[in-house]
Design brief:
Oligomer: single chain
CATH superfamily of the largest domain: NAD(P)-binding Rossmann-like Domain
Strand order of the largest sheet: 9-8-7-10-12-15-14
Number of helices: 10
Shape: globular
Distance between the termini: 12 Å
CATH topology of the largest domain: Rossmann fold
Largest sheet: 7 strands, parallel
Structural class: alpha/beta
Order of helices and strands: EHHEEEEEHEHEHEHEEEEHEHHEH
Length: 321
């Protein structure tokens, strides 16, 4: 197989959200997957360099990306970089994927999978409405993922940037969704059963409690220093709701929960949910579920990028078959 270099558009086309969510679920059941701790190198000026390897019995990847929070003021992307994909048997480089595109789509697909498993409204014929707080790249990806994978038809969008809100509202409308801007996300939490927080996570943005029947995907904060949700909210959720983290890496990366002194290492992971190590329902007859909101904390993991690489390689195989 010859090496292919994927543009952002080609990378996105090879990673439909529903298919990627299914591949992420399959990866969590694959005992051959190995993911060492990622390396995070602090950079002068407040940025970070991430080095994230992962492998299974057939494919190995290394993700190399930079995260520069101040880049939007320069008109540059916050995340830049690439994912290199190798054949495990031969060591041959198979393809080079656009790092920011994979990051956006696999993060949204992880949230989608969590919502498919955990959201109280997941089986409704018209789930939602969805509130997105943060109208950047992740906000857009999650809007698309929840529309494609859950069938969400209504979305409210909140951001400090009115132009970003308007752009994402127009994008949602182009998908056939009912979409509108939300001025006060804390006040609006009472009206939404699905919530995605995808802010820059440089300061607390959300201080109100989600609804008791809400599913929240908190994705903005992925280092111990970052935060979106206030500590009082996180402590309330730990007492009254259900908290799930994406992986055990969240034990030392989930800024929202760590800053609220929540015992993250005791929380179940998405793998626990997928493998049915515990049952997650909102049935009043199921005493194993505490009721209240479901708060899914996502911090990122190279395994999600490996799942994306597996999707891309499957698409290449289909083209050559």
């Amino acid at each position: 197989m010859s090496t292919e270099i994927f543009s952002p558009e080609q990378t996105a086309a090879a990673l439909p959200y529903a298919l990627l969510a299914s591949e992420i679920e399959a990866l969590l059941k694959d005992s051959s997957v190995q993911v060492p701790p990622r390396i995070v190198q602090s950079l002068h000026g407040g940025g970070s360099l991430f080095v994230m390897p992962a492998a299974d019995s057939r494919v190995a990847i290394t993700k190399l990306i930079s995260f520069i929070p101040s880049n939007p003021a320069r008109g540059l992307p916050t995340i830049q970089g690439d994912i290199v994909v190798f054949d495990v048997g031969t060591g041959q480089r198979l393809c080079l994927l656009d790092g920011p595109t994979v990051t956006a789509r696999r993060t949204a697909a992880v949230s989608l999978l969590a919502a498919q498993k955990l959201a109280p409204c997941r089986n409704d014929s018209n789930p939602g409405p969805l509130l997105i707080v943060g109208a950047g790249v992740q906000g857009k990806a999650h809007l698309e993922a929840f529309h494609e994978g859950l069938g969400v038809q209504e979305v409210g969008i909140a951001s400090r940037s009115p132009a970003s809100v308007q752009a994402l509202v127009q994008h949602a409308q182009s998908l056939g969704m009912r979409a509108y801007g939300v001025d006060e996300p804390n006040a609006a939490l009472a009206d939404f059963s699905l919530v995605v927080s995808a802010t820059p996570a440089q300061a607390v943005a959300l201080t109100a409690h989600p609804r008791d029947d809400a599913f929240v995907a908190a994705v903005g904060a992925f280092t111990p220093r970052m935060v979106e949700w206030g500590p009082d909210v996180c402590q309330h959720l730990a007492r009254t709701g259900t908290l799930v983290v994406d992986t055990r890496d969240a034990d030392h990366e989930a800024g929202d929960l760590l800053q609220a002194d929540v015992s993250v290492s005791t929380l179940p992971t998405l793998a626990d949910v997928v493998m049915q190590s515990v049952l997650w329902t909102h049935s009043p007859n199921d005493t194993r579920h505490s009721g209240g909101p479901v708060f899914f904390k996502s911090c990122g993991w190279a395994g999600w990028d490996l799942a994306a690489a597996r999707c891309v390689l499957a698409s290449l195989s289909n083209k050559t078959a």
